[in-house]
Amino acid sequence: QVQLVESGGGLVQAGGSLRLSCAATGLTFSGYAVGWFRRAPGKDRAFVAAISRSGRGTSYADSVKGRFTISRDNDKNTVYLQMNSLKPEDTAVYYCAAKSTTVNNSYYFSGYDYWGQGTQVTVSS
Which residues lie closer than 8 Å to 70 by C-beta, 6 or more apart? Predict the structure, then answer.
C-alpha cells in the first residue's frame, strides 16, 4: 500500500522558516516525480513546487520562487520543502504528491498518482 506522509508543518511568524518532509512507503521512490501543492482557506489547491525523480529538475510557483527550495533524498524515500521568509499568504494545508515516470529529469504540474493527507502551515503577521 502506497503512503505519503507529510510532516513539519506548524505555526510560525512572518519571516520565519519551516521545513516540510514527505516520506513515501510502498513504492519505488526513485521512479516517481514529486510535487508540493497547497490549499489556502477558501481557495483551490495550487501548485507550489515539483522535483524530478532524479532531483535534477525542479520548478516553482512564482509566488514562492526564491523563498522555497524543494529537494529529495531517494535513499530515505523523502522529499523536502524548505520554506524561508514565510508570509501570511503562505498559510495553507500543504500536500505532497507522487507521479510515476520513466523520465529522469521531468517534473509535473498535474496528473499525480498518489497524495498525502496534508500538513497545516500557519504564518502569523
Answer: 34, 36, 49, 50, 51, 58, 60, 79, 80, 81, 82
Query: What letter does residue 113 receive in the DSSP assignment?
Result: S
Tell me: the pLDDT tens digits for 57-96?
999 999 999 999 999 999 999 999 999 999 999 999 999 9
Contact 115, 97 (CB under 8 A): yes
Q: Look-up: residue for cell 505532497?
A: 96
How far, in whole angstroms, is CA 29 from its chain's centroid? 15
Q: Classify burial at 1, counting beta carbons within 10 Å of its beta carbon; exposed 0-12, middle 13-18, buried 19 or more.
A: exposed
pLDDT tens digits along 37-52: 999 999 999 999 999 9
